[in-house]
């Protein structure tokens, strides 16, 4: 907010496209003037790619929403357009793109039109992967990968993909079998981080799925630095 109060055009695609590392670091300085954003160089490069892609396509953010709302399938149109934009196009499972779409749909302003016939894809972050592993929605049969997960060691891109894509399929089936919206399913599993946290003992008694849970409490989400989520 402080950035936008002082520089209303800071977050436009044109400014992102022309960013320097110094300017980007200055945007994220805290009250003590430290720019301690983790993986700042990675975020900086992604910000520039976003701006340059938007400029190359000749789009504005308002154009994307307006084009989606004018189509028969606003959600799918919105996601397909973001498939061409840095920060979103890298992830084949579209986690950030889908989350943004849901936010735009559920905001009080209803920025993105809702078509009830459209199926919202799963929104898979590391919290959902951890829940899928611990509850038994997915199982790791590879001994080496299971050891890496148990030890919370960094995994390869292929290993993370194996877990994440399996979680994607499992959550899709949960949504289908439960008859709940993907937003409701995602909210339940995202909220499970309070009952089944990363660093402390899970509170199984508070969990609605305790009776059917596999209680694989030592399993963890794949550890990997990624911009996907």
Alpha-carbon distance between the termini?
23 Å
Number of domains: 2
Q: Which regions contain 5 or more consecutive residues with pLDDT less than 50?
A: none
The number of helices is 11
Question: What's the story with the biggest beta sheet?
Answer: none
Coarse morphology: globular
How big a fraction of the residues is strand?
under 5%
**What is the structural class?**
mainly alpha
DSSP helix fraction: 40-55%
What number is the mean pLDDT?
Answer: 94
- Would you list the SSEs in sequence order as H and E? HHHHHHHHHHH
Radius of gyration of CA atoms, rounded to a whole number: 20 Å
What is the total tally of β strands? 0
Summarize the structure.
With 229 residues, the protein is an all-alpha fold. The protein is built from 11 helices and no strands.
Structure description:
The chain has 11 helices and no strands. With 229 residues, the chain is mostly helical. It starts with a helix and ends in a 34-residue tail after the last helix.
Key terms for this structure?
229 residues; mainly alpha; 2 domains; 11 helices; 52% helix
Task: Provide the fold topology.
Blueprint (H helix, E strand, L loop, with lengths): L1 H5 L6 H5 L3 H7 L12 H18 L3 H9 L4 H9 L12 H12 L19 H10 L7 H9 L5 H22 L3 H14 L34
Helix pairs in contact: 5-6, 8-10
